[in-house]
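Box 4.2: Ligand-aware structure prediction
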Amino acid sequence: MINHTTEKIKNGSSTKRSKSSVDAASEGSITRRSFLHTSLAVGAGTVAFGLSANAKEDHGGPLTPQDAAILRFLAAAEILETDAWQQYNELGGIPDSEVPGGSGNPAYTAALAVLDSDMAQYIHDNTEDEFTHFSFINAYLMSHGVTPVDLDPFRTLPSSQATGAQQIGRLTNLMQLSVDTSWWTRYRSRTGNPDFGDSFPQAVPGLIQGQFPAIPRSDADLAPGDHLQAIANTAGFHFAMIEQGGTSLYPSLAQRVNHPEVLRILLSIGPTEAMHFQTWQDKAGNAPPLTDPTNGLVFPDLNSPPLGGEDFSTNLIMPEPTIFLDRKFPACSIVRPTETNGAAMGAVKFLTQTGLFVGQSDAFFTTLMQLAQAADGGHGPGGHSPGRDHNHD
Ligand SMILES: [Fe+2]
Ligand SMILES: [Fe+2]
C-alpha cells in the first residue's frame, strides 16, 4: 500500500496522480483499502506542495504514544544488540573505520573461521547494521520530538581481558551465556508453532544447562584447541539466537503501530534481522561436533539422531512450512513466533533468561522493563498468547 503510493510519487507528476487517485476513490465505493490509499495520497500530496506546517507533519502526522513507545523499545533492543555485536567484532570481526574499537584476536578469529571462512566479515557487517538500526530509530524519534533512548548509564559490565578487546564498560555479558538453541528445531518443525503454545527441543542441550563464554574471557581461554573451538561454536549459535529474536520482534510489534511511516520502518528493518538470522543459521550448522575438555560442554553432530534426517539436516536453513493462525489452514513457511501480545516483555524475559545481562543493575532491568511495558501497552502480560511464558524463544 505504501509502496504503491510511493511509486505514484516517483513516477512524476505526483500532485496530478495523487489528485486523480483521490478522485477515483471518492467516485468509487469507499472500501477500507481505497480509503487508506486516499489518505496516503492526500498526505503525499501535501508534502509535494510543501504545505506542511512543521516537521511533525512532514510524514503523515505526529507519532501516537504507542508508536513512540514501540520505537523506543526497539531503539533499546538495538542498542543492546549493538553492544553484544561490538564485543564480537572487537575480538572476532574486523575492527575498522566502519566499526571502530578493538584490534582483533587471531586465535578466536581462526576458531570462528572453522564455521565459515567469511565469519569475520559477516560479524563486522552485522555489527555495523545494528549501529545503524539504533542510530536511525533514535534520530527518527528526535525528529518527532520524542526523547531518544540512552542506555549509557548502564555500561557497567566488564570487558573481556583477552588480547584485542577494548577495556570499556559494557551493557551485555557474553561470558556467562546460557544459549537457547531451540530456534534450530523450531524453524525445522512442520507441525509446531510457538504461537500455538508448542515448545521445541534444544539443538545443543548442554548450552542452556550452564553458563558458557561466547568470547574468550582472557588469553587463558585461547587453549586448548577444543576449548577455544567450543567458545567459537557457542558464539555461532548465539549469533543466530539473537537474530532470530529480532526476526520475530519486528513483525510482532508492527501489528500494533499506527503511523504508516512507523510501519514502514518496522517492515524495512525487520527483514534485515531475518537476513542476519539466515546467514547465522547456515554457519551454526558448520560448528564441529566436540566436547570442551575444560567443562564437558558437548556440541553434538546435528546430522545424527536425535536430530538429522530429512527434517533436521544442517543444510535446511530456510523455514519449514508449519501451522499458522489456525490449524484449518494449509501449512505455510513463516517467521515464528509473531504473536503481538506481550512481545516486547517476552523479548526482555527471554534475553534475561539466556544470561545476556548477568551482572546488570536493578536500575537497568527496571528501565528495560518500563520500555517494554510501554511498548506492549494494553497488550502486555495477561494477553492471551498460548504458551507465551515459555515459548518466546
Ligand atoms: Fe538490529
Ligand atoms: Fe540484529
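In the box above, the bound molecule is fe (ii) ion. The pocket of fe (ii) ion (ligand 2) is lined by residues 81, 130, 243, 246, 273, 276 (CB under 6 Å).
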